[in-house]
Amino acid sequence: MMVGGMLVSRLAPLLACLGLLGIWQVGALTLNTESFPTALEALRAVPAILGDKESLINILASLRRMAIAFSVALVVAIPLGLMMGRNRFVASFFNPLLMITYPVPKAALMPIIMLWLGVGDIAKMLVIFLGVSLPVIYHSFQGAKAVEEKMLWSGAAMGLSAAQRMVWIVLPAALPEILTGCRTGIVLALITMVTSEMIARQSGAGNILFNSLDMGQYDIVYAMIIIIGALGIGLDAAFERLRRRLVRWSEPGFEIPLSFA
Amino acid sequence: MIEIEDVSQVFRTSGRQDHLALSGISLAIEDGAFVSILGPSGCGKSTLLYIVGGFVSPTAGLAKVKGKAVTGPGPDRGPVFQEFALFPWKSVLGNVMYGPRQQGVKPAEAEAQSRALIEMVGLKGFEHFYPKELSGGMKQRVALARTLAYHPAVLLMDEPFGALDAHTRTRLQNDLLNIWERDRKTVLFVTHSVDEAVFLSDKVVVMTRSPGRIKMVIDIDLPRPRRRSDLLLDPRYQKYVVDIERMIDDTSEEVLRP
Fold first, then answer.
1. What domains appear along chain B, each with residue ranges and CATH number?
2. Contacts of B72 in chain A (CB under 8 A)
């Protein structure tokens, strides 16, 4: 019974995917329009895209931009968020800025950014950077703010300087919250990556998608959506595994507390 | 020797008028003494402890430890908080080793010392557990070991057993006394339990509520080593407890200046 239950919960995501593909297949067959290929047709186009050197270069270029922009965003956003959380002056300076920029869709800034920086890598990476930094700053800020004062005092009594406390106490203590922000950041990185390539078409996964849309290659369009979606799911799952490893000490119920004085 | 000289603390509150938490506190504590600060909640007794620890700077007056004015926290004064304040990302051993490693003790040596301390507080076998896997009493044992590990001359204990159940509390009081009997560190112990203060201390400082002032300093003249079962039957112990309880109940304004 237990084994069966485990098996079902393990297979559930797979079954959901298959179900979705099934509905798609039936829907496409029923509608039978050229702009809506069946699931099988779209899936058949996936290896064709991944086998094509040109497409592969495009997709890898996208991933490269995303990786660079994401890394730079973390390097900037985590320290900034932590400092905001521990220093009232830093917070009162940056908070209003963030409140204004937070709700603005970053892709909406793309035309202006293109005007300044052209349509190359820099413009696209800047948009991804903006998309990723805000949630990471916000979560780092919240995480740092919630660090128990007494924990910092304990560190100070051991002789840790203010800078050392920031790195050795605030950072690890806020890590679970920071990583929650990073997880949101990864998904946003993918979204802003595709939208930036949609607006500034030159190379990338988004470029393949929208070019094939223009050319009426609908199986390619849907195959690209599957590839980008799989990429998102894969990145998110990989990150979640990493996150769990890093903050296992904070996961609730990872073992029952012992009762012993 | 800890000297507290005419310390006052004003907390600025938004909107309403400032709150005078401590007013003109002067107190001298000899080396190796176990002194409790006793008072109702909100009397500023913890604030006084934080001032000695250097975590809070007083609005007026100053605290001196071994003749030097306190300007900030330092490893000569080790705090133990009611909230434990353990590092949750570190194991029991990691927490206890933190101080010695920070002080530049070699890893192997720090580990050996820490393991000995963990055994002393009764947690042998739990070295690799994480704080969230431990009960409150065990956490406080770790916190005590973590502080003892960097050899502070003064222990600053801020209602350390306040969050524990009665049974655990009693066991920890006994163990604390046993540990203290061995190396006789100076202990400044904040509590609102009269029982606890009398049982543990050489001296009990009774404070009044808001503004916090010292109402009286009582020497507890009871033999050591103390055993709880003996003390509870001792009329002298009972008298101390009753006298101090009456004093605290007596909230009339006839404040006895020390």
1. 1-72+176-258 (3.40.50.300), 77-151 (no CATH)
2. 156
